[in-house]
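Workshop exercise sheet. Pairs work together: one partner reads the sequence aloud, the other fills in the structure field after running the prediction. Swap roles for the next sheet.
Pair: D.N. / O.F.
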Amino acid sequence: MRRPVRGASTSTAVTDSNSGQFPLVAFSQSEVHVLADHIIYAVPDLAVAVADLQARLGIRAQAGGKHVGLGTHNALLALGPRTYLEIIAPDPDQPAPPVHPFGIEGITCGKLVGWALACDDIDHAVAEARSHGYDPGAVVDGHRVEPSGTVLRWRATRSARADDLIPFFICWGGTEHPARSAPPGLILNSLQIEHPDPPSFGPLLMAIGANVEVRQGQAPALVAYLSGPNGSKVLR
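Structure field:
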């Protein structure tokens, strides 16, 4: 995240001391801290995408597990101490739901489709966002079953949509953060949003404490700038 969105005056970015760690963002009146938790790369076939990203980035993603009932499975790459890349695809071993998360049933090639902000108190973060004019949606429980059988649990808002790229809140509670066990070696240097109407994003992003640059673009897009064994790369 390079600089505040134009007109952003209700939050303050705080640089984290960990190399590769996304900046912390605090609501100016509340001291609710949020952090860029993960970015979501949707693909039609998980195994093919893992091999492709290994060739491009120089590190092989580790199997994450299954989202039982949602019809998806994933693989992970760490992007810092508490930030990671989630590669998500339809799971052929599960019944297809009416609608997959992030609209991935229509994906024909890899694409960044969403991102999450981690917070230590998700209920407080939601209340603060609503007080600033944006409703992140209801908080629901989520879980994923790892290949080892371990169940990871979290709480997250349900507001994320593939078409607007507004992040959702997530809180891991007592669960170990996935970035700690994901393969290391990549750094997320910056994250940007491209949109035909950048000013329309300012109030929404600042309502949730997301200090991210929005640039003019022909179509909505999430753009991640990474560095790793194969040098600097762009994922979008």
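Discussion prompt: The chain has three helices and 14 strands. What would you look at next?
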